[in-house]
Amino acid sequence: MTSKTIFELPGPKGDSLVGSLVDFGQAPLDFLTRCGREYGDIVPMYLALNPACLLTNPSYIEQVLKERNFFIKSRGSRALKSLVGEGLLTSEGESWLRQRRLLQPVFHQKRIANYGNIMVSYTEQMLETWRDGETRDVHQDMMRLTLNIVMKTIFNRDLADQEAQNVAEALNSAMDWFESKRKENFVFVEWLPIPENIRYKNAVEQMDLTIYQMINQRRTSNENSGDLLSMLMEARDEIDGSQMSDRQLRDEIATLMLAGHETTSNTLTGVWLLLSRYPQVRDKLLAELQQVLGNNSPSIADIPQLPYTEMVIKEAMRIYPPVFMMAREAAQDCEIGGYEVPSGCMLMMSQWVMHRHPRYFAEPEVFKPERWTNDLEKSLPRGVYFPFGDGPRICIGKSFALLEAVLILATIARKFELTLVPEHPIVPQAAITLRPAYGVKVVVRSLDFS
Prior knowledge:
Layout: H1 21-26, H2 28-38, E1 42-47, E2 50-55, H3 58-66, E3 71-73, H4 75-78, H5 81-84, H6 93-103, H7 109-113, H8 116-127, E4 135-137, H9 138-155, H10 162-183, H11 195-221, H12 228-234, H13 246-277, H14 279-293, H15 307-319, E5 326-330, E6 334-336, E7 339-341, E8 346-349, H16 351-355, H17 376-379, H18 398-413, E9 416-420, E10 428-430, E11 434-436, E12 441-446
Parallel strand pairs: 2-8
Antiparallel strand pairs: 1-2, 3-5, 4-12, 5-8, 6-7, 9-12, 10-11
Helix pairs in contact: 8-9, 8-18, 9-13, 10-11, 11-13, 13-15, 13-18
């Protein structure tokens, strides 16, 4: 192994006591962007006493995401275990591999396709409550819509049901707690009996109680509702034939609720924000929808004829990636790019930085869905565009999320035009996911083509 270490490379100096922790904690998007532009392919730093580095070379990013045994989930990611337990998002090693094997058939493309009608139906129900000319917070609308869909697809329950409401409220409380920890520079001290920690603990307990009740009801009734819970309960390990315990079911359900509604709602919020700013894109999108759908609601069968709609989603995830950064921790001393990386070092890979990098995208700040024609994604190096991660731990729900985003966009855009309220502040907030700090206020206008 080479004798050179990553800390021989240039990087931000930071404070003598806390390193770059304050800069990163207070304005992570600005800090990471600055590091990615001012320094090299590996940007070393300290976050408090913890060694870390930002990777901006796509081959290094690919290496870290590919080698799951050498690079494990970071300390910040492991803090999510208090919410999602040992689900697919947080587990490691053989435990992760077994869970992935169990869940893979559940997310097969053919099974996911069955949920298309639910996605469209729930979106149309939401639109029935919209009134021409009214002002709405479209981020809140997308959050509630995607939560409705995920609760229906997992439990076959509506948010009108008390059990579903309990889970939704608990999940929102948990997300608020994690956001407060981000503002405190990611210091997780859950055992302190302070009000915010007590609220978080109570939220998780309420969520657990409700999820376990629904699991027990399903086991008692032996009912197969065709939802994800039924599929998870029936899933068998292809090697030893074992099934998930109630605890494993709970952890995977909590993971699916978190990942399955938060990220898609953020993607769609970014879409409406960008379409309002780029009316020429909105016109081109609407032309495709009118040509393909006419007066009909979209279905999964229409998606192959909606390439521009898909490109709008892909470009929105480039400019506003639903997850702004992924992090791994070196499980042992290793080497990246010819430099030693010490065990315990946190390796940061930022979608926000790479998706907006001028080396790979012309006019990176411009919303231009056309850039994705001719399979641009396949021509990019791995590690440049990775909204769902990459490697063996790529998001298992990628197909579900893309299907949902396209169908929701097509359903809404053919009926309503959304225009940003002037002067409303649009501030991207980097927490667990990338969400707008103050929502996104829009005026909705009904489109009448009769």
